[in-house]
Amino acid sequence: MAGPEPKKGEKNEIPWCFSQVKGTIEDEVADADIISTVEFNHDGEFLATGDKGGRVVIFQRDGTKKKAPVASPPVFRCDYNVYSTFQSHEPEFDYLKSLEIEEKINQISWVRHSGSSLFLLTTNDKTIKLWKISERCRRYSNLNTVGDDGSVRDQRTMKELRIPQKVSDEISVEAVARRVYSNAHTYHINSIAVNSDGCTYLSADDLRINIWHLENTDQSFNVVDIKPANMEELTEVITSAVFHPHNCNEFIYSSSKGTIRLCDMREKALCDEHSKLFEEPEDPTSRSFFSEIIASISDVRFSHSGRYVLSRDYLTVKVWDVNMESRPVEVYPVHDHLRSRLCSLYENDSIFDKFECGWNGSDKKIITGTYNNFFRIFDRQTKDDYCYEASRDMTTLGQILRHKKVTTTGRKRRDEVMVENLDYTRKILHAAWHPTDNILAIAATNNLYLFHEQQ
Question: Phi and psi at residue 407, in whole multiples of 5°?
């Protein structure tokens, strides 16, 4: 089964332009500055990043379309400026297990909001926090004990009671931890996802998935537990989990064996027995020492419509139809040129890198990252794929991205890179596509690159 058919005359390839780069351009990067997660909120007006130092930076979009002179088309803008920065997690130490808990932000999940404040969940390996980000006016005038210039008033001159007045010309953005959810996971948390009901969310570690109510920090309900009675019999771990975008009773989780399970909480409270199992049969002729490692799914995402599931393993991106469990409907090779180099990738631990993937707003295109600061976009309609680079050399606003290519043999041409010259330390693990517009947020080590469609 193929993806949606292209409309007649529809333009499929998007001409991407450089918009912004956040972060310092340095050769030596502190480990704490490396970006570990990127996430747009539901309308794309805000963009959040987390890093290995436990910090969260929220960017706000600087207007979608700004007014232009009469008879001129509106100017498309995708500038994102810093809105708030705060320390979400600190390093901790588990004295019972003699285990150091890193402050690294593993994932961020936005909570839909109806008021002026923003809410988001952040997590490190053990603790989840609900943050409220709001604008506060800190300046008041007409105070009783303090004058407008800050001096203390003489009580003897006070003849009447003043009513303080708020001055709105100085606004500060404050981040406050409203809830802290802890002590519910024995193993490292790899996923958090807010439910479509807006009241609950799930958190997943290597062996268990819990359901929380946002208002209750003392109790969570365990819905999946794959821990065997004897840990020596352990054959797989949970790698990612996410709720259905519309059905609050359904969620999926992926495993290190390359399987995806869909669970329906209407069937049973404990979802150890899945409703559907998405698994591709293995070709016994291609089995090798690395088969299980490269089959491990590092990220899984529902499409916005909820009809398809996107999964990323080490070498490929796959699209699954929720109505067909036997095999994926689409398979896109990301860096098939590395298949012959798995041994060296295993020796330098690159084979264990966990790449994320994502949909565009219409579910017609897919984005994921690879090495050498390359990222790929796959068109589900035409089956074309495009490779681009988040390069430090890009400094000109509106600069068009050129296609890149990795070649294995022959003479290297312009915009081509020989496979043996790939830099495995420069990799795009985290990328996000704006939910409605063609805007990309690409995390490359400590830099956040923003690209937009040429207007």
Answer: -115, 145
